Amino acid sequence: MSSVATSPKSAGPACAAGQPAVQLAHVTVAYGARVVLQDITLELPSARIIGLIGPNGAGKTTLLRSIVGAQRVLEGTVRVLGAAADAVRQRVAYVPQRRDVDWSFPLSVLDVVLMGRYGKLGLLRRPSKQDRELALDALKQVGLAKRQACQIGELSGGQQQRVFLARALVQDADLMLLDEPFNGIDTTTQSVIFDLLCEQRQRGRTVLLSTHDLHSVEQNCDQLVALNRRIIAFGPVDQVFTAPVLQSTFGSQVAVVGDGQTVVTRN
Ligand SMILES: Nc1ncnc2c1ncn2[C@@H]1O[C@H](COP(=O)(O)OP(=O)(O)OP(=O)(O)O)[C@@H](O)[C@H]1O
Ligand SMILES: [Mg+2]
Fold it and tell me: Do 201 and 45 touch, CB atoms closer than 8 A?
């Protein structure tokens, strides 16, 4: 693993106790006999936007699911916001990868966003007027207030992603785990969303997002995790977004040219 220092590109406010957002120690995950994450040791600081990059099958989704407690870990320990994942579930917002969601469930756009408030409501309470206002405001922020009454399945792929992001925003979570949140999102909306994520960072929240959009992570993240079944590198973007690290992560599919721009090649 090529490990680099963990100081951020742009500093946000430190969390109260300087507590790392995520601590993984020697984590190994397997599906049956097949090990897909091997000996992952990683400490993610709070109040940062951190990009998670790696080729298809690198284990990005598996890593996010391990952090949120949805994936059993074979070996090692996972600490989230200083506690076991189960103990802080309500403080973690998870937006799954688009293909992992059943979009045919019969819920309106507003209902989906309101689901983000359920952790705060308790079992029997119905959403209050304030919860609905928060949900509508989040929909406004992602540019979908006018679609609040639509069935979620009627929206385009990019719009559905934005609804899930709104759901994560209303959850008011300290850690946001976003699995390919920009898949199918146009560049204008992408920059609106990054602005929202920067606001979260300002409030001391941590965002960990997986993506295949290398240009966008280079522009917008503070730190990067390069993953390919193992941690290839972790640290500030300018130290991870280098030709040697990208080539170790993606093989010969990626080349870095000129001022840090990437070119994806076929061999
Ligand atoms: N439920 C599962 N059962 C068996 N194998 C799985 C399962 N989910 C993932 N895998 C395997 O684990 C490996 C890592 O998958 P994962 O989905 O975490 O990768 P990824 O980096 O998120 O890929 P992508 O960029 O395509 O989303 C892959 O080889 C995949 O085939
Ligand atoms: Mg994935």
Answer: no
